[in-house]
Amino acid sequence: SVAHPNEDLLEKDEAMLVINVARTLLHYLDAKLG
To answer: Which InterPro entries does its entry note (predicted)?
Structure first.
């Protein structure tokens, strides 16, 4: 089946959100432990 453009955009937004959360968490841990 062909995905709707909105669903594709949502997947990209969710991916960016996960990446941003991971980066924030890594920066937090680095500051906390370092």
So the answer is: Abi-like_C
Whole-number Å distance between alpha carbons of 34 and 26: 11
**Radius of gyration (C-alpha) of the chain in whole angstroms:** 15
Query: According to the model, what pLDDT value does residue 1 have?
Result: 56
Token code pair at residue 26: 């890594």
Angle at 25 (CA atoms; ends 7, 21), nearest 5 degrees: 10
> 10 Å Cβ neighbour count for 32?
7
The vertex-21 CA angle with 11 and 14, nearest 5°, equals 10
At 4, the amino acid letter reads H
Q: Which amino acid is at 23?
A: R
